């Protein structure tokens, strides 16, 4: 679970650390009139809760797309290599291997994170 969290949220964790570093730098300067150091733990908790909420949302989205694919619903994925901007995936020729949609007759695969359930 922890390794999965770091794999999924690494870039967002780095951004949160960067923002927290800036906040810490500003809070510890002499020219800041109040004592905001006492708010740094609250700010860190806010960032951590945001990361956990994003992780849970992303995992729920991935599970929703996987369930819809298994039920035979239409899945739409982002494809920036075509002028259309997306591709429709159906259960027939496509297979879900881990978190990736693959088709032996198609030149690329699509990560489940880039897909939504079509109507």
Can you describe this structure?
The chain is an alpha+beta fold and 119 residues long. It folds into 2 domains: 1-71; 73-119, no CATH class. It contains 2 helices and 6 strands. The strands form 2 sheets. It has a 3-stranded antiparallel β-sheet with strand order 2-1-6. Strands 3-4-5 form a 3-stranded antiparallel β-sheet, with no helix packed on it. The radius of gyration is 20 Å and the shape is elongated. It starts with a helix and ends with a strand. The mean pLDDT is 86.
Would you spell out the secondary-structure blueprint of this structure?
Elements lengths: L1 H26 L12 H31 L4 E4 L7 E4 L5 E3 L2 E3 L7 E2 L3 E3 L2
Antiparallel strand pairs: 1-2, 1-6, 3-4, 4-5
Helix pairs in contact: 1-2
Assign a percent range to the helix content.
40-55%
Main structural class: alpha+beta
Could you give the order of strands across the largest sheet?
Answer: 2-1-6
Element string (H = helix, E = strand): HHEEEEEE
- Total individual domains: 2
3D shape = elongated
Tell me how many strands there are. 6
Number of helices: 2
pLDDT below 50 for ≥5 consecutive residues: which ranges? none
Largest sheet: 3 strands, antiparallel
Mean pLDDT: 86
How much of the residues is beta strand, in percent?
15-25%
Radius of gyration: 20 Å
Distance between the termini: 32 Å
Short description:
This protein is of the alpha+beta class and 119 residues long.
Kindly list the characteristics that best describe this protein:
119 residues, 2 domains, three-stranded antiparallel beta sheet, 2 helices, elongated
């Amino acid at each position: 679970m922890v390794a999965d969290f770091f794999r999924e949220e690494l870039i967002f964790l780095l951004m949160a650390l960067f923002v927290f570093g800036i906040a810490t730098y500003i809070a510890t300067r002499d020219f800041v009139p109040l004592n905001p150091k006492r708010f740094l733990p609250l700010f860190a908790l806010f960032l951590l809760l945001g990361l956990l909420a994003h992780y849970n949302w992303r995992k729920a989205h991935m599970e929703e797309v996987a369930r819809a694919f298994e039920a035979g619903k239409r899945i739409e994925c982002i494809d920036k290599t075509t002028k259309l901007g997306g591709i429709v995936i159906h259960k027939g020729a496509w297979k879900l291997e881990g978190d990736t949609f693959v088709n032996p007759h198609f030149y690329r695969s699509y990560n489940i994170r880039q897909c939504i359930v079509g109507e």
